Amino acid sequence: MPISVLLVDDEQLVRAGLRAILESQPDIRVTGEAADGASVVPLVRRLRPDVVAMDVRMPLMDGIEATRAVLRAVPDPPRILVVTTFENDEYVYEALRAGADGFLLKRAGPAEIVHAVRLAAEGESLLFPAAVRSLAAARGGNARAREAMERAALTEREADVLRLMTRGLSNAEIAGRLFIGAETVKTHVSAVLAKLGARDRTQAVIAAYESGFVSPG
Which neighbouring-strand residues pair with 102? Predict the structure, then answer.
């Protein structure tokens, strides 16, 4: 089945450009469009897209609130990519903290856009880990995040897996680094997410940086 995508942006030209790029691929189809975040929840319920590519800044409801609304209202929600002009935008970081899975730069080339959508759909790799590290750097040493990490009580192997997750490695790449099977890595990743109360890898990585478990650089 092709990856289904919902486009959400208040600029029609941006939506048209993304549609043209994505629909040039045989494994991706755009199933709907919206001009504001306020329309996202009903469209997601009706269309059940695999990925939502959503502008972070919109006039009525921005991408942060729309992300929260989708995750709050929709069972088994889609992957969410926030679309932004600047990768170090605080709006982007707040959208990631709200539950978005990654972000896509508006200046990205067609190959990068397609790759980002595929990665988001797969859910086994972190999008733009260097940018996530820079966004998280200023939040390091957060006391609440540090306490949550301590309560998680990760095993040594789970800690190793989380450190490699923060570097953007996929399950297969982590398996190669640790000389264990990919299914074993998947089990460890699931355990890390559960212990941290994280929806996905992006949330776990944010927790790792904000708690001081790992440091940028």
Answer: 81
Q: Looking at the chain, how many residues does it have?
A: 217
State residue 166 phi and psi, 5-degree precision: -65, -15
Q: Name which residue leads in pLDDT, 81 or 128.
A: 81
- Using one digit for the tens of pLDDT, what is the confidence trace for 91-148? 888 888 899 988 888 889 999 999 999 989 988 766 666 766 777 767 777 888 899 9
Which letter does DSSP use for residue 108 in this model? -
pLDDT, residue 118, reads 93
Cβ partners under 8 Å of residue 18, min gap 6: 7, 9, 30, 53, 83, 113
Q: Which residues pair with 55 in a beta bridge?
A: 83
Alpha helices per DSSP H over 48-142: 63-73, 90-98, 110-122, 129-137
Q: Which residues 6+ apart lie within 8 Å of 84 measured at CB? A: 55, 56, 57, 91, 92, 103, 104, 105, 106
Could you tell me the pLDDT band of residue 59, with boundaries at 50, 70 and 90?
confident
Exposure string over 121-147, b if 16+ CB within 10 A, otherwise e: beebbbbbbebbbbbbeeebebeebbe
Helix axes of 201-210 and 156-165: crossing angle, nearest 10 degrees: 100
Q: How far apart are CA 170 and CA 140, in angstroms?
A: 24
